């Protein structure tokens, strides 16, 4: 089964850290990559795509960096996946039903353009996956982290960014 790339994971984790930014403060890709000990170049590519899709906004210059373009509750996992990976498809129909030796290729028993049961099932599955991605958003992740790890983890994260990023701007 096809998998979403690590850029999606990098993007979602990194976007969560933009939620609690003080007003007017941005965070650079370098800061996000350093905090998570992940590849800055991978993350930079993801953020370029996120900006193009309107998920984040950027400021350039000495005080440059990124911030969310919309509220965390308005940015869904599907928005992020589509921004980073592009349109996704989990099934590619090769129309092999038409290869059956029992069929008269000139008089196929289905209408042109009619999907077979397998293709319909795969479309339905893909739609359910997309619906699930649409239901989850950055605010949900933030709230889940708070429940799982407690406010202390949120506070430690904010303290790290305050000390290493915000105070230096």
Automatic annotation (TrEMBL):
Tell me which Gene3D superfamilies the record gives. Answer: Winged helix-like DNA-binding domain superfamily/Winged helix DNA-binding domain (1.10.10.10)
Q: Per its record, what are the GO molecular function terms?
A: DNA-binding transcription factor activity
Q: Name one GO cellular component term.
A: cytosol
In Swiss-Prot or TrEMBL terms, this protein is called Transcriptional regulator
What PROSITE patterns does the database record attribute to this sequence? HTH_RRF2_1, HTH_RRF2_2
